[in-house]
Amino acid sequence: MQESRKASSTGLVTFAILSHVFTFLSLFFAIMVYVDGPRELWRAFSWVCIVPALVFNCLILHRGWKAVQDGQARTTPGQAVGYCFIPFYNLYWCFVAYHGLMQEFNRLAVARGRPDQKVIEGISLTQCILQVTICLAVFSLPFSVVVTWQIIGAVKNIERA
Fold it and tell me: Can you tell me the distance from the alpha carbon of 113 to that of 130, in angstroms, rounded to the nearest whole number?
């Protein structure tokens, strides 16, 4: 198996900030749909904002999985992101992609002898549970923000190792 290059954390903070901004703009526009005014325009703005948010989120997820590729990771970065787009299967796959990534970060922290660099797995598990219960998905946003920053911190820790 060929050695995989280490993922660089350069730009991850920018991606995260842009992802959060576009996500909350999309949420704002989605709420405006229910207020008097041009509903179709608000709906269009919401969709226009959610696309870049999704792209930046996928880039962060890909970079996280790229950082844990040591020959023992349970999936590849491409699979982690790509399988999230398969209808119905993505309800299962979000647990592998996000919660599994947190487990991989913790496995690597223990393997490196740095248990102080472990991430909190329960937050990603809560995020996944809320996302698959579609009616509660909006409540996963705060957990998603925390998971994003955990991914960035863990990638930086791996790069420093």
Answer: 33
